[in-house]
Amino acid sequence: MTFPRPPQPAPRFPDDFVWGVATSSYQIEGGADADGKGESIWDRFCRVPGAIADGSDGRVACDHVHRWAADLDLIAALGVDAYRFSVSWPRVQPDGRGAFNEAGLGFYDRLVDGLLARGVRPYLTLNHWDLPAVLQDAGGWAARDTVHRFVDYARQVASRVGDRVDAITTHNEPWVIAVLGHENGVFAPGLRDRRVAMQAAHHLLLSHGLALQALRAQACPSRAGIVLNLSPVFPASDSPEDAAAARLEDGRLVRWFMDPLFGRGYPADVLAFLGDDAPRVESGDLEAIATPMDFLGLNYYSRSVVRAGGWFDVHSSGKRLTDMGWEIVPECLTALLLRLHRDWPLPPLYVMENGAAFQDRLQDGHVHDGDRIDYLASHIGAVGDAIEQGVKMAGYMVWSLLDNFEWASGYAKRFGIVHVDYDTLARTPKDSYHWYRDFLQAQRRARAGGSGAVRAALRA
Ligand code: GCO
């Protein structure tokens, strides 16, 4: 089999750079009511007519709760250093408060031990969006009490597995939870209220900071941080209106999260825009949010282009698009990393998700997903370019191990490097899986034998 030649990134990555692959609980686990799991806001949101493009839900998903051992074998055979997964809060604490569910905790215990037994380092995320539904009934992330519920949950998970995981991420993509979930209503919990959204955003950040403090207070040996969805934001034209709109969007998407995490408080321009919709911030909150992190993760898929008072037509740029309709712009990842490096005093930085959906076809046991290989190779190259220009990068993870439940798009969009047949749940590694495995082997040879060995391996 021949693959497009990767860029020549191999010699540029530090020896301790962490290569990984990522998933999340609701998207792959299934077992919606197995072993005493409680309902999550995504279980509930999927029942809203029209909420999910194909009318599907995560009740079975990839059935990972029953097939986890075989999935870990696939991860081990891939040769990654790390696997990033998330814990389903309602699986380990069905009511979001009070008693913990031993069956749920035991599942993650076995998962962590299974990874370690296979030589793969666990990267655990506490909140990849599946909040216990009973907490939503009590106000969800817009309610200050949820902050304390989250800290308790974090403490419990950390005391159970924190001695064996490399990294604990508090929240995955708080912007998505707050804005897509509470302002635009396209994701769970499906609310449309900017004031509620910004209060939720504040509580997510506050609970992140307080959880970090709680983990350290119990001497949890794992490193801890947060994962943000970040994109460079461009105006659609040279007009002053578009420039202002892009500046505001950068404020809402990037600076709203980065500035308080690094002790600078919320950006003044966004607060002015929000007016009465700005969150209620109590004394001490900003100090808690700025609790120093051991790492920062970012998820990168594309850039964002903003037109004042309207939508930017992605077809107008001439860029190639993924099946999500997202422009393929790896150079914007380099630009984003350089900007983060320039503007904030970063801890070790990870790309915690990067990948693409394409219309894959399974034929004779193969999926020839050359587009995905090109996407991954060019974005890995973009990370290498940033490293060469001085950005300290600690790792990179492919989204995703498996085709899975792509939120409001249901199962129609496939991001996996492993194909999942949703009738039989059979897993078939795609060409991109084999490409990534070969790339990682070349990396290892490079660590052992210098860049000449890499180039030879990449030519083979
Ligand atoms: C994310 C999402 C993933 C998505 C992926 C593709 O963290 O952005 O968490 O769950 O599946 O981004 O849209």
- Helix fraction, binned, reads 40-55%
Mean pLDDT: 95
How many β-strands, per DSSP? 14
What are the bound molecules? Answer: D-gluconic acid
Annotated CATH topology: TIM Barrel
CATH class: Alpha Beta
Supply Rg.
21 Å
Class derived from helix and strand content: alpha/beta
Measured between the Cα atoms of the first and last residue, the distance is: 11 Å
Poorly predicted parts = 453-460
Principal-axis shape: globular
Fraction in beta strands: 5-15%
> Would you identify the CATH architecture?
Alpha-Beta Barrel
Description:
This protein has 460 residues and is of the alpha/beta class. The protein has a single domain, classed as Glycosidases (TIM Barrel), CATH 3.20.20.80. The chain has 16 helices and 14 strands. It has helices spanning 25-28, 41-45, 64-78, 89-92, 102-117, 133-137, 144-161, 174-182, 194-217, 240-261, 268-274, 285-289, 330-343, 370-388, 431-449, 451-459; strands at residues 18-22, 82-86, 121-127, 167-172, 223-229, 233-235, 295-299, 304-306, 349-353, 362-363, 366-367, 393-399, 418-420, 427-429. Strands 1-2-3-4-5-7-9-12 form an eight-stranded parallel beta barrel, surrounded by six helices. It has a two-stranded parallel sheet with strand order 6-8. A hairpin with a 6-residue loop joins strand 13 (418-420) and strand 14 (427-429). Helix 7 (144-161) packs parallel to helix 9 and helix 8 runs antiparallel to helix 9 (194-217). The longest helix is centred in the middle third of the chain and has 24 residues, at 194-217. The model is unreliable at 453-460 (pLDDT under 50). The chain binds D-gluconic acid.
